[in-house]
Structure formats: structure tokens, C-alpha cells
Amino acid sequence: MFLVLRPQAKADASCEALKNAGFESFALPAVHINILSTQFNRPRRISAQRNSQQRNSQQQTSLKASIDELANTHANTPINTQLNTHKYDVIIVTSTYTEAFLQQRLANIANEKTHFLCVGKTSAAMISKCLQKINLTAKTSVAQPENSEGILAILTAINVTHKSCALVKGKGGRKLIEDYLAQKSDYTDIFEVYERVTSLRPQDINDVERLPIKCIIVTSVDIAEQLLTHFSALWLKARIFMVASQRIYDYLLAEGMTHIVLADGASSSAIVACAKHLHQSGVLDDKGE
């Protein structure tokens, strides 16, 4: 049996995909998602280290002045309609949880020359829907594999040295992408539009540890951290971990977990493909387990 640790909707989707492939699974929503109010969606700007300190200072001052001017000019207008009307060369979308923000702001930050980079196919489908609503056609690329490392591969290929970028993500996440853009892009505006909140309860943990779990599916480092914090170390070390990225793999390995397999991203199709590989290789002795 697989234990799927994801936000509720994605956990349910992954469990359904596993069920359709003949595998038993149990969904445990380790986090729930809070969409942040648009008043907190002011961008945080980062720029390449090669740029001079003077240029960074000028950009920050210019951004602050623009925001202050807009705030003074439109004091009675909702703040989310005021901020940032810059059209970016590249917009990186990390999750479907960014949809509410994009539906509201996409016309202000993108045009037909904008290149969208999506962590997964579901995010790409969401972007397509948002673009259709504003009658805009733009290039969209999906990371391969569907994780942060896949996004870095695209960023390297398209060369963002002289490009303006926007990274639309969850609060505190995707540091690998952010660090790369800080080194390589002309400048990048960071929009943090949702946050993950721990939702594990002691009773949930007790219930799960009684189940015949053989493999634990982990799709982010923060969920891995919660797993190690709340579950018995002995119980965890007796299980196989299926992880969605090399970063999660390395984190669990450093924490003493030894039975780890790397899936080709966090999509349900990637999870099912990895589950089939585990079964065919004899690691899981039957599909029910």
C-alpha cells in the first residue's frame, strides 16, 4: 500500500490514478493550501549578482517609487489592481494554486512575447485557460522532469541573462529556482501567492502507522520535514520512499533514510509509472501492497 502525502485535492487525484492502475493507496493531506490575499502580492525583486550595487539600488528605488505613486494616485482603488503592469519576458508558474492570482493579474504582466515555464502539465493547462480568457496567445513550456530541476534546464536553454522574469509560487518555496534566477536573470520579480500550512494531527499519524504501508510518496521537502518530525523514525526507516525530485532524495538520504526511489516529477502519471517500476522490479511484491 502507498501512502500519499500531498494537499487534499492532489492527494485524492494521485490515489485515484494509483487505484486505476491497480494499486492500493491512502491519502494523508499533510498540508492545506491558503491562497494569500492580493494585498500581500507585492513583488520582491532580485537581480543577477553581476549587476552593480548601484543598479540594484536604482531598480529597488524605482519599484518603490512606482508603487508609492500608484498608491497615492489611486488611494481608493483596490491594491491588487494597481501593482505591476510590467510585461515580463519569462513567467515561471510553479503550481495550479497560482490560478486565482494569474486570472486577476495576467493581462497586466504578460503579452504575446512572454514565455511561460510550467512545473507540470496541469499548470500548463491552467495557463492555457487563463490566456484564453484574455484572448492572448503565448509560448508555454513544461519542465522535464516536472520539478524545479526541469525548470532550471529550460532556463539554461533559453538563456535569461538579458531577460526580465517573474516567478509565481508559494511562500518560501522553490528556492532552487529563485537562487538560479538571482544569479542569471536580468532581474526577477517574486510573487508569493499561496502558502502551505501543516495539517497533520496525532490521530492521523496513529491511524497511518497501523496500515500496511510499504511505500511513502513525498512531493516536496517541506512535507518530508513534517514526515520526519511527526512519524516514528523506526517506522519510516522500514518503508520505501518515492520522491518527486533530487532535492527531496538528498534531504531524506541526509536524514538517514536509505530506501528511496526517484520518480520523474510529481504528476500522477509520473507517480503511477514509478509505482509500476517498483512492482515490476519486485520491490513491491504485489499490486495490493
UniProtKB/TrEMBL annotation:
Any one Gene Ontology molecular-function term assigned to this protein's record: uroporphyrinogen-III synthase activity
Protein name: Uroporphyrinogen-III synthase
Keywords assigned: Lyase
Phylogenetic classification of the source organism: Bacteria, Pseudomonadati, Pseudomonadota, Gammaproteobacteria, Alteromonadales
Coiled-coil blocks: none
EC category: lyase
Domain Tetrapyrrole biosynthesis uroporphyrinogen III synthase, residue spans: 78-272
InterPro entries: 4pyrrol_syn_uPrphyn_synt_sf, 4pyrrol_synth_uPrphyn_synth
EC numbers: 4.2.1.75
Gene3D superfamilies the UniProt entry points to: 3.40.50.10090
